[in-house]
Every structure is written in C-alpha cells, then in structure tokens.
User: Fold these one by one.
Assistant:
Number 1:
Amino acid sequence: MIKTSQLSKRVSTAESELEILRGIELEIKQGETAAIVGASGSGKSTLLGLLAGLDTPSAGAILLDGTNIVNLDEDQRATLRSQKVGFVFQSFQLLPALTALENVMLPLELAGIAHAREKSEEFLSRVGLDERLHHYPRTLSGGEQQRVAIARAFASQPVILFADEPTGNLDTATGANVIELLFGLNEEEGTTLVLVTHDNSLADRCQRKFTMTAGQLEEAL
Amino acid sequence: MKSPIAASFRLLLRDWRGGELGVLFSALLLAVTVVVAISGFVNRLQFNLERESASFLAADLVVSSAKPVPLEWRAKVDTEGLQRGETITFSSMVISDNDEMFLASVKAVGGGYPLRGSLSVDVGSAQPSSRIPAPGGVFLAPRLVQQLRVAVGDAVYVGDATLTVTGTLLSEPDSTSGFFGYGPRLVMNSADLDATGIVQPGSRVTYRLLVAGSSNQLEAFRDWVDPQLTQGQRLLSVDESQPGIGATLERARGFLLLAGSLGVMLAAAAILVAARRFGERHTDQVAVMKSLGATKRTIQQLYALSLTWLGLLSIVLGSGIGWLAQSAMFNALADQLPGEINRIGVTPYLTGAVTALVCVGFFAWPPLARLGGVSPLRVIRRETTIANSTRALDLLLGAASLGLLMLWYSRDLQLTAALLGAVAITVGLGFFVAHGLLGGTRQIGSNAGSVWRLALAGMQRRGNSSAFQVVIFGIAIMLLLVLTAVRTSLLDQWRLQIPEGTPNHFVLNVSPSDEARLLTFFSEREIEVGELYPAARGRVMAVNGAPLPDRDSAEGGARQREANFTSTDTAPEGNEIVEGAWWRAGTDDALVSLEDGFAQDIGARVGDQLTIRIAADEFSVEVASIRKVNWESMQPNFFVIFPDQLLLKFPNMLFTSFYLEPDEKRRVGELLDVIPTLTIIELDVAIAEIKTIIDQVSQAIELVLIVILVAGALVLIAGVSASVDERLHESAILRALGAGRGTLLGAVAIEFAAMGSLAGVLAILGSEAAGWALQTQMLELDYQVQWVLWPMGIGLGAIIIGGLGTFACRRVVSAPPLKVLREL
C-alpha cells in the first residue's frame, strides 16, 4: 500500500543544513494500522507530510498505492490525494466559514463525487453529529470538531488515512471517544491507517508501531 | 470538480455567510459607488452649469455677423437637427408721445428666442412673463420707461413704426453679450422690423444666429461654419464670450475630475488592503482544500470565478447606490441649481463598471491568485511560509492600470501624472522612511516603559505589513490633503475674482466740462466712484510704416483694429508686463503699451513704430511694452494705453466706473437727468449672475469634498481592520498572561498613533508635491507651501489612526481571552 526507500529530508537554515529524515525504509500493507511515535522534533510529522504527498523529499522514493509520488508535481499529487487520501489533523483544520455538513462535503465536491450531501449526512450521523449538521465549527466543542474532521476524512472513502496527533488537542475522555470512532470507522471501511502520536495507549491499538529517533525510524516488534 | 461555476457560487455564498467577504465587498462597492456618484454628479452639474452659462448667450453657440446671416447657414442648422433663433440689434432713438426721446439699444427677436435662459417681463400680472413681445408690442428696460415717461399701453416710435409698450423688461439672458449698443434695452418682435425702415444696407446692425443642441451636433455645425466665416463674422460660445464664466467652469470641472480620480484611487487602496486581508484569511482554507486534493488550477478557477461574481454584484449594487447618492447630492443643491436635472447618461455606470473590473483584476486578484501556490503542508506546519505579500510587480501593474483608468476618466495627462507622481513619492519614501523610522522607534522603545516597548516592538515585528499600512494611510491622508488644499485655493481665488463692491456700472462719454458735476453727483449721494480715465476711440493704421489692410478687407492676417484708447502713467493693477518696460511718469515720449492679444492681431512687437489715428489726426508711437490682462477681473481693461502727456493733446472724453447696490438702481436715471449725454453700461445683472454661478459651483465642490472625505475615512477603516486579527490574537495572549486593560489599549493606541503620524509625514510630502503640480500646472493658481498643514497632518494622522485602531481593537479587552483565542 505504502512503501518508502532511502527517504531523506534536509532543510537549510541560516547557519547550517539540518537533516530531519535519514534513509527511511518503511512498508505498510493495505488495511493495516500503523502508529509512528517519537519525541517532539524527531521528524515524525515531517515523515507524515511526505507520505501524504504534502511535501517533497530531498531524496528517495515513496510508493503510494503503486505510484511513486516523488515524480508527481503538486497538482498531480493533489489529484491523487482527492482520490485516495484522507486526513485527520491535530488542530482539526475545519474551515470556519463552512458548516459541519459543508466541511464534510468539501472533499467530495473536490473529487467530483456524486451525492455529496447524502454521503456527508450519513457519515456525520455515523460520528453521532446528525443534530449538528448546520453548526459552524466555532459553536462546536473540540471533540465534536474532531468528529466532523473524522467524518470528512472517511466520507470520500480514501484507501489510506493519515492522522496527525488526532487526540493532541483533546482531553483524555474525549480523546478516547474520538479514538473509538476512528478505529471503528477504519474497521468498517477497511482503510489503511497511518497515525502520528505521542500517546502510547493510542499507538498500542495499532497493529504496527514505529519509533522515530533523530530522523531514523525503527519498528518496535 | 464537476461544475466550477456552481462550485464558485457555493464558495462565494459560504464565504459571504461566514462573514469573510465583508471588507473586500465593501471596498469594491465603495469604488463603484464613489465613481458612479461623482461622475454622475459631475456630468449633471456640468450639464446644468453649461446650460445656465449658455443663457449668457441665450444659446449654446452664436454666429455674429455685420451682414444678414446666409440662408444656407440657417438651413444647415435645421438639417443638423439643432434649434435655431435670431436676433438683430442696433441703436436707435426712441420717441414717446410726450416728446421725450432717448437713444436705446434695440433688439428685434423672433421665433425660438431665447434658446437658453429666459426673459422676465413685468406685464402687469402677478407672475413675470417669459414670452417675447407679440408683433406690434415692445418691452422697455425700466430706465427707458423712466426716461421716456411712458407706461404699459402707451405708444413709442422706433424709426417709422408705432409700437405699443406691453411690458417692462426685468431681465434678458443675453444682456451682456457684446456692448454694441450702450443704451437701455428695447425688445421688439422681428416681424415689425421692416416697418421701422431702420435696417438698410450700410446701417450698423448686428445679426446673430442663435444655435442650441447636443454637443456633437454643435461640434459638427461649428466645424462646417467656421471655415466660411468672413470679415465681420464671428462664432461665439460661452467660454469665448464670457471668459470669467468659462474659466470658472473650467476650474470647477478640473476640480471635480480631480475629486473623482481621487475617489478611484482611494477605492483602489481600499481594495488592495481588503484583498490582502482576504488572501491572508483564506490561506488556511486553501491549504486544507489542497490537502484534500484541490489542484492549483481548481483553486485559482474557484477564486477567479467567485471574484467575478463579486465584481458583477458590486457593479450592479454600486451603480444603484451611486445613482441614489448623486441624486441626493443634487437634491441638496436643488434650490441653487436650475431645472433639467435628469441627465446622468450611461458614462458614469460604464466608468463604475470599468473601475470595478480594473480593481478586481489588478488589485483584488493578485493576492488571491497566489492562494493557488499555498503549500498543503501548512495543515501540519502552520509556520510554512506562503508568498502572499504584495509584490513589486503587482504594485507596478496596479499603478499602471490605475494610471490608465484615471487618464481615461479625467482625460487629463497632467492631472494623472501629478497624482501618480505624488503616490509614487509617498509609496517610495514610505517604505524607505517607514522601515528606517520603525527601526528607530524600536531603539527608543527599548528604553521606554512597558506599554511603549510593547507597542513599538509590535510595530517593528510586523515590519513589512506595518510599512504597508503606513503607506496606505499616507496615501489616503495625502489625497485628502491635496483635495482640501486645492479646494481652499480655488474658493479663495473665486472670492477674489469678484470681491464685494466690484464696480457694476461703467460711465462713458464724460466730457471734461461735466467732470465736476459728475463727481458732485456721486459725493452728494455717497456713492463711491472709481478713477476717471481719459478715453478716445481710435485705430491702429500701420506697423513700421506698412499700412494694415482695412478691417473689411477680405485678406487674411493682420488688419487695422479699432479700440478704446486710454492714458495713464502708472501700470494698471492686475496687468502683467510680459515684454518691454513701463514708462516713467510724466514722460512726453511717444510711447504705447499693448495688450498681448491685440499686439499679435496687428503683428506688432516691442520697439515697433505704430501709426495711430484718433479722429482726423494721425501720429506715430513706439511700442514700449506688452501686457497680459486679466479679463476675468471685471475691471476696466484697455488694449491700448498711452502716456498721460500724449493723449492730453487730443480731444478726450473721460470714463469711469461705480458700484450700486441693487436697491439704488434709480440713481442711474437720476444721473442721466443731471448729465443726459452720458452713456452708462450696466453690468450689475451680469455680475450678479456670475456670482450666483460661482456660489453654486463652490457649494458643489464642498459637497464632493465631503463625499471624498467619507471615502478616505473608509479606506482608513479598511486599513485598520485589516491588521486587527493579528493584533487581537496577540492581545488575547497578553491578556491571558495577565496584561491589564490599560496596558493593552495603551499599546494598541501608541502603535496606531505612531503609524498615523508617520503616515502624516509621508502624506504631507506627497501632498506638497501634488499640490504644487496641480495648482501651478493644471488649475493655474498660485502655489504656496501650506506650513499650517504640517503639524495638522501629523497630529490628525496620529489622532485619527490611533483612535480608529484603538476602537477596532476594543473587542479584545471586552471579550474573554479564551473566546478570542478559540475564534482565531
């Protein structure tokens, strides 16, 4: 499903060049759930950005569902994302000007999927927000906002879902709730799930667990 | 994306509902509204003022001729679809049944007269009549009624004709056009002209063909008739016949166009600010959309389309509001302006639409176009930079498009260049000075108290955006200062043009023996009278011994000219010597000073010898100087002036001028009773009318100034609110950390006030440059550095921007910080 080889990322700062990722080798199969854990600044969010095609590596290859996304330009990667990739972010990233329903409809509309409204209503109902369809993000609690984000991520039925600290901004109880939803939907939809987290209990629920240390990745077996 | 159009509509609707479009849409709407309102108002005002001043001619265009106007000219007027009228004027003795007689200026009118303006005649009924006299009837000026001792219903004799007085002439539109006949007016119907037997070949008669219609038709007729004019025939239009009014209208038009151009510029500034803010606020949204799979093309298409809808909406709404606004402005002046107020035409709407398109295309679009380049990585890493700042190329393109727009709007290269130059100075100096000074303020700030440190650190941290804001504020204040300064000089100059007590009556043909009686008459009645000048009618016959052709000669080029000569040993006030020098007092050299136009007509220069004829005497003089005369001054002006000693040798009449209050009008009759041989030219009505027009135009200018001031204020508000989000966020954090209300508001107030005073400095530099260019080059006014504006500009900048900024940020101290933080 997803495979990297000799993936590295360097950024230039004023003083020197910083190597954030060094020769990452990673393979995750379809339907698997994988967690990437590590200290702040270890490079795990950078890796996630690269895997999802949000950024380009300095060297190496990334095969996403058989396509080497390193060779694609930004627009081709965007098209790929609209067809195959879903996201859940730490800071939810709902559009404040759109209602919950419209936020969920947005990726469906971008991908040109028919019956965007019905599908979105269905997914919002599955995350328990059928009473909140026309609320704006600012009137929703953090947990509710993240549930909208989860509905949005699953609504376009992606083959792979990336989650960046999905519970990072939530309290323990709400976080647990959101995790249940995430894993529940993931199981129902058969999606491949890659998540980045600090939270060991969350990481433990994944089938595979990787640890990032100073730009290098190791699988915890 | 299935249907980009539907999607863009959805985007627009959602943004609209979410309150994201407010500032951008308001700015666009403001642009269209200001442009439509001002250009509509200017069109209408111009139309009305031209109509009104056309009444000085009783037409838009007049062909004046010493011979009857050719029949085919009249036919041409009719085929061009223009209105036609005719007057025939001459001097004639009028006699009454009680054997009183008086030299009157007779005007025979027919058919369509007057084409512009109206007659006002007291016919004994409650309302004055505006009709011309019926055949057999005449209207007499009050003074003629008085001199002839007649009343309505009495008979008067003009030549061989017996006519009945049917009314007293209160006013006539073309009373001042040409001082051919100096006597009081008699208006008769042209049907009775043959019966008088006065008009015969060789008699001194002025035929006038009156023409009125649309400017295109007039232009066509003028082009057709102009080459066919022969000696003794002239074309007259408002500008040429009344230089005072012409110049006043020209300056008023210049000012209003300037105001309109400033409106466009202010609106563009508001849009630039608003679009930047819109772009910044949409960066996150675009990043999310891109992470969800939107391509660069999709994003650009979406925003381009939704901007197009926004532009169209603002054109429609702005046109509507603009129409209402100009209507309201016009109604505010309704009692001062004559009727016919419904013409605004399509041009203002077209101008508004083009303005909207230019503003959308060159000011709103660039920041949104760059949204397509936002990195989707921003959803994970907030700090990911985006190239969303205003780029030099955009500014250049924007300035170029704005320049073309203003040029199209004002059709005036100088005006456009002056304003763009001033803006360039403000922008250029702005970024330079703002950066330097912002750095300097940080130095001061680090040694100051915490409020100041906070404020100045904040300002400096936002270096580029602070500089941008300072420049925008500077431009807005600069444009307002320019407009205010130009308005002040304009109004001052108009007030000076016809000051209170300007002589409104001229007395000619005062024989030296009557001088004492005349002066006694005035001093007994406490009427102030001007200096007595000698005046002689004479003619320039030859230049350097080469005889000039006769004035009726068919040859082109220089020819003999007849003029009123005077003498004085002191250069007349308000005349400017452009060549040569004035003579010393008491000289008995044979010298002469010529008006520059007159000198050109006869082809004379300083040092040339002129042969002059007065009555039967011929003599030779040397041209000592050439003068420029201010014909707008309504003061006695002379083409030809000799030294006192020279003219004393000739039989001379004297002439002078005096001022009469409207209710003292009977003094004219009394004076003629005392010295019946005098000729009195009455200019009181004309001067009063010019004053009325000046008053109207002044009021219109004040009104337009207010509109532009409001537009300027809106730009300032847009500029302030553009930076509020960022400040709110920061203030909320500070507040959460325990900063007090006073500290926060103090810091915000200091920051904005500092930017305001910086903007004030820039504005003053720019406005002095623009003011100089506009006043000296375009409006032909004197320019003076307005020192008083300097502290005012800086102080007002600080107070207004500081006040607006503090007001806009007040929310942060009244709302719980958590709420503010959560909303951002």
Number 2:
Amino acid sequence: MTPLEILSAAIAGRPAPRIPVFCNLLDQGAWEMGVSQEEYYASGEMVAQGQLRMRGYYGHDNVWSLFYVGKEVEFLGCNKILFTEGGAPNVADFVIKSYDDIARLEVPDDITAHPAWTEIGTCLRILKQEVGATHPICAYITASTTLPALLMGMDKWMELLLTGPADIRDELLRKCSIFCQKQIAAYRAAGANVLIYSTPFGSTSFVGMKRFMNFSLPWMQKDLAAGGTAGIVYYCGMAPFNTVIRPVMSELGIGAYYISPMADLAEAKAIIGTKGLTCGVIDDIKMIRWTPEETRAEVKRICELGKQGGHFLFGTGIMPQALSDQNIKAMLKAAFDYGRLE
Amino acid sequence: MLDAIIKAYNEAVFETDKDAAFEVVAQALAAGMTPEDIVFNVVIPAVEEMMSHITKDPDANLAQHFMTAQIASAVTEKMLEKFQHPPETIGQLVIGTAFGDLHSLGKRIVIGCLKAMMVNVIDLGVNVPAERFVDEAIKHNAQVIGISAMMVHSAIGEEGCRKVRRILRERGLEDRFRIVVGGAPYRFDEQLYKVVGADGWAADAVNGAKVIVDMIREVKAL
C-alpha cells in the first residue's frame, strides 16, 4: 500500500499493514538544500525539493506545502519577516497597528492570483507531480480566530477579543474567515489533501468553555461551512483540547484530531474511538535531550496507547532544528516498528 | 464588607470582565475603603488566588491569565494615583523577549501582575540581545532578569538565556542576579530551564510573577 492508501485505510478503519507516520520537517529543508532560510523560502521549487529530499532520506509518509507560519499574512499586506538560521521565521511587522487598519484590510478576491501564492503554487505543483498519487500533501490553514494574532500580535488580539469593540472585532473576524475559506479552496485545488486547521482558540487552554461555545465554535463553523471538512485535521497549536472533542465532532463534523503531547492520549482515543482519526503526537521538544533509546520508548508508549482499534496516526510537533538526525531516525524507525498492524 | 468585595472582584476577574472589576472597585471606594486597602487586600490577593486557581484547575485558560494581569495592572495604576504615600517597591526586574523572538503576550501578562505586586518593571521589549539584558539589569540595579521565549530556537539557542548566563559568569555577576525564563517550550520540557542556565521558570505567566517575586526577595536577602 502507498502512504496515501495507508492514511485512507486509517481514516476509514480498513485493514492496513501499519499506521500512517507523519513527520513535520520544515526549516530543516534549508540545511538539506544548503542555502539560508531566506533563500530557501523565497523559492517554491526549493521548498518542494527540500520536502522531497527529506522524505526520501527519512522515509516518513507526508510532505508539506507550508513555508512558515506567517506566510499567510503576506496575502494581507505583511512584507517583513524575521528569518533566523536556528529556527522558525517570525512575522516582523504587523499589518494591523491600529483599529483603523482593520477597515482597510483587504482580502484578495483570488488568492492564487496574488504574488504571495506564486511560490506556494510552484511548490504544490512539484509535490503533486512527484508524490501526489502516493503520499499525503499537507497544507496549513490558520483559523479565523487565530489569524488576527499574526496580523496584529497576540497581545493586541487578546485585548481586542476580550475588551475591545465587538463590531470592530467581528469585522476583523469576518475578513479572516473569508480568507480562511479561500485558502482552504486554493490549497485543495492545488493538490493538498491533508489540511491542518490551526485553531488554538479552539482549545480551552486559550479560552474558557463558555467562550469556546459562544465564540470559537461559531467562527470555526463559518470557516468550514463552504468547503466542508474533507481532509481537515483539528489542531490547536500543540495546546490540549480533549475537553472540546465532542462538540467539535458534533457541531463541525471534523474527522481527524492532532492531540497535544500534553493531553491524555488514552482519553482522547476513547472519546474519538472509531468515529474519527486520532493522531498521537510525540513531545519533540523534550526529544531534543532524549537518547535514541528514550525516544524509542516514548514512541512505543504512544503507538501502544493509540493503535488498538485502528483509526490512529503517529505524528510529530514542530520538529525543532535542534533535534539530532540520530533521534529523528530512531523515532521514525520506532514508529514503523511499533505501528505495525499485521 | 471586605469579604463581599473580594468575592465580587474575584468573580469579575475569573469571568474576565474588566468593567465589572472596576465597578466593584468604585463601590469599595464609595463605601470608604482606601486605595491602599483595595490594592493590598483585594487586587494582590486576587492575583494570588488566580495563581492558585491556575495550578489546581486544568480548565484555567489564557484569557483568564491575560485579564487577571490587565485588570490588576489597570486597577493598581488608578489606585496608585490616590495613595497617601508612594508605596515601597519589592524590587526591580528587567524583562524582555529573547533575541530572535518577537512574541510579547507572556511578557505582558507577567508585567501586569508584577506591577500590581509592587515590583518595578523595566520592559526591554522583544528581540533583545543577551548583552542588553545584563547591561540594563546593572543600570537599573535589578535583582532578576526575566527572559520570555515562545519559540524553541529562542529558548534553547546560543543567543538567549544561555548567553545571558555566560555573560553573568564572565563578568562575575552571578551572585547579583537571578534569571527566570518562561514561554511555551519550557512547558513541554520542565527541565529545560536548567539546561539553558536559568534559575527558575513557571508554567504560566501569572505564576511566573510569583517566581520572580520570590527570587527578588531571595537576592535582596543575600
């Protein structure tokens, strides 16, 4: 079976030789290609080749069309990114500096015609051509309730959300939701089939249950209503969200859940059961200082907790650049070993 | 009366309702409480209550942390204008986000809580070079250097806390300052603060304020 077929089998609960094994290698691509981050992320071809080379070297199932978190705000006017060689890029200039900027914020009609799409489109075209028939292609979609943090900074967004004028807040969210819907459609059309829907405000670690039900959930419904939930993976930026799995399932109909390493995986699996795909995620920050043996033991624990009854995927977090090659290999070998189903 | 005011104020903070908190304060002033009473017997205990709540309650959330700090800081600022005598500060903190990192939310929550707790805070902003943390700590006679890092590379990289520690060691300043770190990477690995050479950390920004106050007292007692 191809990795894409193995993923489909895991989602549907059909027999497969093993669980799907995802590994989120992003910034390491610049090393792989022997260029600076800034050069790497300036070229869709480079990002695609980096993804293909890393997948070929490590053997995991997925490739990514994500450049870096923050790339999406380039569609909305951001033109300053801070690149650092040791880690992920940062948004260095916020598009929204005052509430007046919210009224001026424009969502492009056709985001695939925007210059910011050019390299993403190139990357996806290459990935689709090279591995689209056999491997899952991941895209990163920022939820409407989270996108403002990239547009104005997290603290200013919290201030507007919790104490600011409701009409201005809603105008911003409406624009962000439209952009989110356009992104989902564009990535799907270009060949991405696993859409990581990043929605930290969909976790009760960010807002209380009352605000989740009255604020986060309705906006998530708007984000997903037009395009549906095919291929959507619920992800809260590594924050735990077991408390909301039931309402997300019933109200949004999402079928895959990327469980935080800080959450109780057994509890999540018990809630999701055979109704969806549980993704067990390793703590790859702790893994920086683990030995390969410790890494292997943790992968074993995750796989044994999750794979019973199927409907399970092994995945990683943000895979920091500080992780050793030896540890990444140990993790993936263990995931293939302990993820065997036959 | 005090119990009823504390209860009403705590409820407003827990519900992240800033207007309701100010309404309670206005009622307390009208009922004859002094601004000093409000800060020391209502606001600071409410911050401490939230610290305890966050530790015990898995449902405590970021919105509560943020509003606890915002409300505490705003009420304290208003009350300080009305104090009979300027209050004595506990000590000094210099705080910033590590080099290569532009996140500021955690730092803002810590600062809000510490202002209410009578700590003199010098905010160095974001993307702060290690040398500047040390230079500003010396300049302001701080007891504690606070380093926020939301990204793995800024938390563990050579330009962040590790370098601040190295500079302190090279300049013979390790007895004079404590380093406290905070941010998401430290939550995923509770031993990480030791790896990067910090003296303390907290899992959330509200409790970070408590760790900092304890460290200020520790340094002042030397």
